[in-house]
Specification:
Helices cover 79% and strands 2% of the residues. By secondary structure, it is mainly α. Strands 1-2 form a two-stranded antiparallel sheet. A hairpin with a 6-residue loop joins strand 1 and strand 2. The chain is rod-shaped and about 110 Å long.
């Protein structure tokens, strides 16, 4: 808005000075005065034209950015839906594995909370059980899954998603 006001002011200055130059020519004012006022007309016109073209370019850029933002929001919504679908599918895979390990319903709940990163204390508070009970259930889960502990248990579900990574100063690859 400020730029439009400046451009309008420059155009008004240009028009008023243009008519002043015409009047001065008619009145026979010295050439240097006509030249200086003519220069004011040309400079104010050039600045107004530059400012107007800059306003138009910025407006076009803003409109393009708005369109890009709308497009990005649509893509994000699609990605979010795809992510929700993938999470739902992965949850099914986890539940299937829990069944294959013959985890009880209670063990399945504890196992899911362990995968979400909750501590034994948090799980016991959430399930209204003693922490000792949760520890015992976790131990049973690890035994049925044939893993050593919480980290190996979580890694069991993540390792298929991990891509092979090579370290630059090592001859080995980590899977």
């Amino acid at each position: 808005m400020r730029d439009k006001l400046i451009a309008a002011t420059l155009l008004i200055i240009m028009v008023l000075n243009f008519f002043d130059v015409l009047t001065d020519i008619h009145l026979g004012v010295p050439q240097w005065h006509i030249f200086s006022e003519g220069l004011i007309v040309v400079i104010s016109a050039a600045c107004a034209i530059y400012l107007i073209s800059d306003i138009r370019a910025r407006t076009a850029n803003i409109n393009a950015l708005k369109q890009e933002l709308v497009h990005s929001k649509k893509e994000l919504k699609n990605i979010s839906q795809a992510m929700m679908d993938a999470r739902h599918e992965y949850s099914g895979v986890i539940q299937t594995q829990f069944s294959q390990w013959t985890l009880t319903r209670s063990e399945q709940e504890v196992a899911m909370l362990l995968l979400k990163g909750l501590s034994f204390k948090e799980i016991s508070a959430l399930r209204n059980t003693k922490e000792k009970t949760v520890r015992q259930q976790a131990s049973d889960i690890y035994s049925k899954a044939d893993v050593e502990g919480r980290h190996e248990f979580a890694a069991w579900f993540l390792e298929d998603f991990m891509q092979q990574k090579h370290y630059p100063h090592s001859n080995s690859a980590i899977n």
